[in-house]
Amino acid sequence: MPFRPLPRGSVLRSLSRPSPAGAGRSFGGGSIKCASTSATRSTSRSGSRHLAPSSIPAPLQRGILVREDNTRRFAVEQFRNYASTAPAAMYTASFAFFEALWDAGVTHCFVNLGSDHPSIIEAMVKGQREKKGRFPRMITCPNEMVAMSMADGYARLTGKPQCVIVHVDVGTQGLGAAVHNSSTGRAPVFVFAGLSPFTLEGELRGSRTEYIHWIQDVPDQKQILAQYCRYSGEVKTGTNVKQMVNRALQFSKSDPQGPVYLCGAREVMEAEIVPYSIPQEEWDPVELGGLPSKAVDKIAEALAGAKEPLIITGYGGRDHKFPGALVELANAVKGLRVLDTGGSDMCFPADHPAWLGLRFGSDEAITTADVILVLNCDVPWVNTLCHPRKDARVFHVDVDPLKQQMPVFYIKAESRYRADSLAAVGQITDQLKSDKLASLLNTKEAEARGMQLQESYERRLATIQAKTKPSEDGEFGTGHLCRELRRLCPDDTIWAIEAVTNTGFVHDNIQPVHPGSWINCGGGGLGWSGGGALGIKLASDAENGGKGKFVVQVQQHEPYIIIGENSQPLNLQHGAITRKFYSKKPPPISIEDYLARLHRFCPMSTAVYLATSLYIHRLAVDERAIPVTRRNCHRLVLAGLRVAMKALEDLSYAHGKMAKVGGVSEVELARLEISFCFLANFELVVREDALQKHADVLREGTSFHVLRQGVPTLTLNRRPKERILTAEGKENEAK
Questions:
Q1: How do residues 30-82 score in pLDDT, each as one tens digit?
Q2: CA separation for the pair 591, 608 (Å, rounded)
Q3: Where is the composition biased (Low complexity) (predicted)?
Q4: Which spans in 442-527 are helix H?
């Protein structure tokens, strides 16, 4: 019979008729041939159970079955080769690696996998199956820059390092500018990459099997990133993989924080080892203390006696307690001004009179100040643009005052101290409140400086606002846009900024006031903002129980929309996704004929149909995510079959062919696939026991009775007078 594509708009329903003779896999006659996910395996089973025709209800929203006249067979056996080729008891270095990450507080892995990661992938499957809720979440990123930027954004908001897994030397180089941003932005990120196998003839598990293993073998892979990392090393045996992971994380979390890099060959990561654990309390990062008492006295006295005191900061706001502590210090010293020159974090609120905004190494206040306290800052000023006056007293307090990653760095400073900025600010503030310095801070001259500071602050705000006014012809610039965004967005919006040389201008008009609400690209590697913003969003959700707010960009037809208050985002986004499955009117083809057509031109195994049935059952009955109606069941089943085929089998038909057979455009099929994945929360792996249980439910008719009793899901969000399918395949009016 010649192939005829369905007209667009005619989409899916449920299979309940004989498979056409000779159409791919055999479902009758006494044997089932099953294709394994392993390219080297196939199974042939005989003597499968025969099921009475009356024991299975007609397919409904939950069941998509392949029916022979008097025999039904379920190919659950083929899934015995799926999911993981490793025995459940096997404990490899890769599995220990992920255990170490989780125990150390790493909750997410942003991965871009390759031929060096078979045991890594196997450990992922094993961990997600056996350690649910106690295993890192895997997020696939097709681009290494995005993966690193997401981990960077997550760490920048929370201070918790996350993991990035990339592919040998090429994936390491693909991280590119993102590693620079993480290093200069002091973001703790743990990077792991595989190495080309070091054995050639099968001496060890994991030996070379591909041409590319020779091409990607470089002399010292870790040196690609070593100069940007706080630590770089190689896992040489699985017996101490947890110690190696924790050593790297110690460096990453100790100030100055930053990225670390580990690599390991396939033979090492695939090696089976004895399960073990290490005492996690012994692997905390190195903590910095405060200032020496003499330093506290010297700095406090200098600030108290200054006529134009100035604080220059850059990274202090990474600790969200720092802005509040700095406000307390500014309130204690009347006339004190605060300049942010790093821009990586919100260090001082814009609603305080001491706020000078954000400038990159140049501001008039630097040239006039008589006492300058530099707090945790890389570039307080650029000498060719401006510099302190000759008699200015300068004190430098930093977690890394020598700037050991910079070949050339020095500033004029009377004293330098390696100390924690928050602790130092608290010490200085306490000292300023002592009786010894109270007389210097409560003079008429000090009061006058406070009034002058308020007046200059109001002038600064007026000047900023004047520069943002639209022109007479209605044209406006970035300043006006930023002010409108600030006005329209919630007060606690998190701003992910990558404005390069316009950063100061944007900062002037956004005027952040909340700790953690302003996160700027940490360095000069362009392209951070997309992945960084996604990482920040992920962190805000994870740290707030999934109840965060976020504004995301609308990308063509993808299921992302602008969302608002806590109770609304999921409903809005969910509605946008489910609407994609509704046709304007019920398709003219029955679900039985539709699925028979699909199976004729794109044969699929019974297990794929069972998995799709299980997907839709979860969505419609267990999770009540979407009602199944005549207007959406075709698209739901088409998308479910396509996803199940890709998730569970090696076989996958060309996208264009599947779209033609299904009666939709290629663009619409792609949209349906991704929407289905979001509805299913990307939980697409179906274990053998789940398939068997679902098959038993269908065989025994349990689903039939459940549905006849009425399932609330089937009435959710249903439009007036919309028809739904009953167990007998008839139509009833929805109330």
A1: 333 333 333 333 333 333 333 333 333 333 333 333 333 333 333 333 333 33
A2: 17
A3: 35-46
A4: 444-466, 478-488, 503-510
Is 518 in contact with 497 (CB distance < 8 Å)? yes
Longest dimension (CA), the chain: 102
Q: What is the pLDDT of residues 642-667, one digit of tens each?
A: 888 888 776 678 888 888 888 898 88
Strand order, beta sheet including 415-418? 355-358, 337-340, 309-313, 371-375, 393-398, 415-418
| CA distance linking residue 132 with residue 596, whole number of Å | 38
CA distance 584 to 157: 44
Q: What is the pLDDT of residues 270-326, one digit of tens each?
A: 999 999 999 999 999 999 999 999 999 999 999 998 999 999 999 999 999 999 999
Cβ neighbors of 241 (< 8 A, separation 6 or more) are 93, 96, 97, 100, 235, 264, 273
CA nearest 618: which of 61, 58, 6? 61
The string of DSSP codes covering 650-680 is S----HHHHHHHHTS-HHHHHHHHHHHHHHT
**CA distance linking residue 511 with residue 497, whole number of Å:** 13
Task: Give the whole-angstrom CA distance, residue 472 versus residue 474.
Answer: 5
C-alpha to C-alpha distance for 136 and 277, rounded to whole angstroms: 17
Domains in the chain (CATH in brackets) are 31-75+577-733 (1.10.472.10), 93-283 (3.40.50.970), 293-470 (3.40.50.1220)
Structure tokens at 280: 């996690």
Instruction: Determine contact, residues 34/78, Cβ cutoff 8 Å.
Output: yes
Element (H, E) at 302: helix 293-305
Distance CA 275, CA 273 (A): 6
Query: In terms of residues, how long is the chain?
Result: 735
C-beta of residue 295 within 8 angstroms of C-beta of residue 301 = no
Q: What is the dihedral of CA 693, 694, 695, 696, to 10 degrees?
A: 50
| Dihedral sign for Cα atoms in the order 410, 415, 419, 421 | negative
CA 250 to chain CA mean position, Å: 22
**Structure letter (DSSP) for residue 318:** G
CA 398, 402, 406, 407: dihedral to nearest 10 degrees? 170
Element (H, E) at 495: strand 495-497
Closest CA to 150 of 540, 679, 563, 517: 540
Amino acid code (one letter) for 66: V
Half-sphere exposure of 721 (CA within 13 A, CB side): 1
